[in-house]
Amino acid sequence: MFLKYSLILIALLFTLNAQGITLPAAMEAKFVQKVTNPKKKVIRYEGRLVMDNKSRFKWSYLKPSKKEVCSDGKRVLVVDHDLEQVSTYRMNRGFDLAAALKRAKHYKGRLYTAAYQGRTYTIAVDPKGYIEQIAYRDDMDNVVNIHLYNVHTYAKPMPAGRFRCTYPKSYDVIEG
Fold this sequence. Notes:
The chain is built from two helices and twelve strands.
């Protein structure tokens, strides 16, 4: 499920420019992700994000545990350092979220909403129009809130090496 929402968020970040949101060729940021369950228990994750508009990304979770989710635009690699496990997945060619997200609507102020597969995503932008927060409710009725900060944007795509996950050869590799 994490993989599915990572792909949706990547698409959100790079397909809303028609709606007045400023989207660079590439960006990197720190993030705080809070997941609040229906009983109001909160899990807080922290890490770094690097992405570009070629569907390449790397989410590096640093706290409370170390995990990386990377994609070269064709395959997704999930490295769970606690489990010493790597899972690989082929990106779904039919995953065309761009068309759905181009219908995102300006809600008010610096807030936008985007609907996809029965779920609504709320996107907040900073005064320059860059995305700074995304919130949604997942399949388990958790409220997920991702706040981006220390955002750096670039006019050109980043080198491919910035999107690679690294892991010891001793990790188990599972083809998904």
